[in-house]
Specification:
alpha+beta; Ubiquitin-like (UB roll); DNA polymerase, domain 1; 5-stranded mixed sheet; globular; Beta-grasp_dom_sf; 2Fe2S_fd_BS; Diverse_Oxidoreductases; 2 iron, 2 sulfur cluster binding; anaerobic carbon-monoxide dehydrogenase activity
Length: 156
């Protein structure tokens, strides 16, 4: 089947999508967007988190066919051309990237948190990121990055 979806603001078509194929697979393998990572395939690690119609979703749990006619924003779509999103900049500055496997999902989740909550408390940050697992266990720098991005957003 063919799936028509808007990805990062651009209409896209994925052809030869099979029933049961995940949105994650379609994004990575059919549309050439490898930013979202394939790890647990059970929605437990959050490394595949994307926006689906403006809401964070584990793309491994969404059938590609369910994305028909919908809007998807991946980690690649957070940046504005060559300019990184402030959340991405904060992750780089704080060294919140270790092996990098969890980073795309963390970025999308943190981006969503800061969009919804201008000045999140540490508890709110931890709660928001609870569905994103970092196997390198570098959570403190990730928390620092989210705090930095939120502080910068407040000043704008």
């Amino acid at each position: 089947m063919r799936v028509n979806v808007t990805v990062n603001g651009e209409p896209r078509q994925a052809d030869d999508v099979w029933e049961g194929e995940s949105l994650l697979y379609a994004l990575r393998e059919r549309l050439g967007l490898p930013g979202s990572k394939n790890a647990c395939e059970q929605g437990e690690c959050g490394s595949c988190t994307v926006y689906l119609d403006g809401q964070p979703a584990c793309s491994c749990l969404v059938a590609a066919g369910q994305a028909e006619g919908r809007e998807v924003r991946t980690v690649e779509g957070l940046a504005d051309g060559e300019r990184l999103d402030p959340v991405q900049e904060a992750f780089v500055e704080c060294g919140a990237v270790q092996c990098g496997f969890c980073t795309p999902g963390l970025l999308v989740t943190a981006h969503d948190l800061i969009a919804r909550t201008a000045d999140p408390s540490d508890a709110e940050i931890r709660e928001a990121l609870a569905g994103n697992l970092c196997r390198c266990t570098g959570y403190e720098t990730i928390l620092d990055a989210v705090r930095l991005a939120a502080a910068r957003k407040e000043r704008v």
